Amino acid sequence: MRKYNIFLLFVILFLSSLRLNIIAVDLDARRYSGYSIYNEQDSYVSVNESYLEEYEEFLASEKIKKSSYGMRSIESRTLGVVRLAQANYSGCIPSYGCAIVSVTMFSNYVNNESLSPDYVLTLNGNSCSVNWSNLESSLNIGSVTAQSNSNWNTLLSIVKFNINNSRPVIVGLERTINGTRNTHYIVASGYWISGTNSVIYIKDPGGNNRTSLIQFINDGRALMNYRVYS
Fold first, then answer.
1. What is the pLDDT of residues 141-180, one digit of tens each?
2. Nearest Cα to Cα of residue 109 among 145, 78, 155
3. What structural domains does the chain harbor?
4. Closest C-alpha to 167, from 98, 129, 219, 110
């Protein structure tokens, strides 16, 4: 009888453990439901953005293991790039200065400075049409590599590589409205990857209401190119 009781207790403990694992998976799925993330199967899934900040530091240094149904790691890193708003500056910057402001944000981060886009504009000949190569030596930010790109996974690998080496990535976007092509530049400052799902965090000189690249994609903009200084 005693052996039977011990066996029964073992079965109860096993089932309880299994149930806790199932609950943990369900809670984890709910936890991430609502973020704005990209899925390789050409679908966009919603994940709760309110959890991104809460788990950002944890996800940057830990791997979250799922239950016995499988293990999936989460990779994440975000750089402390300070966002600058082009509306706060003069000349052509409020209307056409997204690239100037993006270069300034990059330079300020890698050189630990606080330059103003107004100053960087003077280094660029007071033109908002950026001479990317000329600013290399003026700002001491290394040599620029520019690459046309319309593929999310390629960009994600570039962003991950550079962010892991403490280098933000300047991303160009484009959209055509009524036959007019519009371009916009932002700074990719971090990433979040879980399986086939991914988020690219950004600093947008045009406003602070967009914090992930997919928000621009969902708004009809296409990936145009990226630039990295190294």
1. 988 888 888 889 999 999 999 999 999 999 999 988 887 8
2. 78
3. 86-229 (3.90.70.10)
4. 110
Q: How much is the pTM?
A: 0.70
Which tens digit of pLDDT belongs to each residue from 175-210?
888 878 889 999 999 999 998 899 999 999 998 889
CB 206, CB 105: distance < 8 Å: no
Nearest to 205 by CA among 172, 162, 159, 164: 172
Q: Which tokens sit at 115?
A: 């330059």
